[in-house]
Amino acid sequence: xxxxxxxxxxxxxxxxxxxxxxxxxxxxxxxxxxxxxxxxxxxxxxxxxxxxxxxxxxxxxxxxxxxxxxxxxxxxxxxxxxxxxxxxxxxxxxxxxxxxxxxxxxxxxxxxxxxxxxxxxxxxxxxxxxxxxxxxxxxxxxxxxxxxxxxxxxxxxxxxxxxxxxxxxxxxxxxxxxxxxxxxxxxxxxxxxxxxxxxxxxxxxxxxxxxxxxx
Amino acid sequence: xxxxxxxxxxxxxxxxxxxxxxxxxxxxxxxxxxxxxxxxxxxxxxxxxxxxxxxxxxxxxxxxxxxxxxxxxxxxxxxxxxxxxxxxxxxxxxxxxxxxxxxxxxxxxxxxxxxxxxxxxxxxxxxxxxxxxxxxxxxxxxxxxxxxxxxxxxxxxxxxxxxxxxxxxxxxxxxxxxxxxxxxxxxxxxxxxxxxxxxxxxxxxxxxxxxxxxx
Lengths: 215, 215
Prior knowledge:
2 copies of one chain form a homodimer. Chain A is of the alpha/beta class. Chain A is 38% helix and 20% strand. Chain A contains 10 helices and 11 strands. Chain A has helices at 10-21, 36-45, 54-60, 73-79, 81-84, 114-121, 136-139, 158-170, 187-192, 194-204, and strands at residues 2-6, 25-30, 50-53, 63-66, 88-91, 96-97, 105-106, 126-130, 151-154, 178-180, 210-214. In chain A, the strands form 2 sheets. Chain A has an 8-stranded mixed β-sheet, sandwiched between helices. A two-stranded antiparallel sheet of chain A has the order 6-7. In chain A, helix 4 (73-79) packs parallel to helix 6. The longest helix of chain A is centred in the C-terminal third of the chain and has 13 residues, at 158-170. Chains A and B meet through strand 7, helix 9, helix 10 and strand 11 of A and strand 7, helix 9, helix 10 and strand 11 of B. Strand 11 of chain A pairs antiparallel with strand 11 of chain B.
């Protein structure tokens, strides 16, 4: 599958590398064609890996991953709406606002979410909120934890959620550990998990953890 | 220990019954002395169980549990500040606002929390946020789930957190499953978990679940 990863940060790099490892063709998008981090990732990833502008890689991709900084995601995606029309956009971003220091607050919260903002601004896009609830290194490597944990899907398009579920299964997530929370509005829950995630990270001394829902 | 439980709802009843079962003297507080739910609980609990006004039971208790509806907690506690001075207040409430329907939003969120509001309004009280992250029936019954799960503490007073930890240990929570998240400000994380909790409940079809932090 052609997967375009928007964003060159820790999350973009981890997902780009992870999807390439699974055999997908991956291109990394940024604001310019000569982004040093994107070019370094291409050199490291090898194979079919490539880099380009947000618009170029989005137009090329079948699935587009939003791994841009959450506070700029809406702007970035709105500028390439034509390239995104009809496509599955996996929104892994968190709208973290660090302007007040650490821990950050959320720039959109409670009665709205970043994923909903994106879905409203780009109604022809099929947004699926996923993987924003755990650290980058674990997103496509559930086996790094000592026992199975859970991830969440939220989105209005069942087919789009099925595509994302398929990618997660390829990465080793177990089907029963991929919880469908419902429509894109449920992304509020996924994003509002971050404030607790950050305090748990402080308590356990590592971001390499995830939660398991125990019944 | 003399434990005053403020609130006659599902949470107050579960905690009152649970603490009595553990051998504590429990009194349930409400706005009036003839609250039918409080009197029914007393009749059912037997022993030293009693009911009274918020002020009466708070003055009597060594530890006071805030199990009132989160949107009125601040008002209720502010009215009995003299009775609460110096005491440990275990804040298990969630500031859920159902005025817009289900799922509710949070009446205080992101850069503040109910626990922080209480701590600011009643500086002589030692607030500990705890147990707001799971359903009432599980709060003092961790053994009802199939494997160990985690609960959280947030508060500025280490001694007060030790008291609450002690009560949780009595109820069967394992020490390593009681995560100290830091000062009362960390209650933001605990309260902002609710929107995800509600969607997970919808996904798994029951509120009888809790999370385990897996490393």
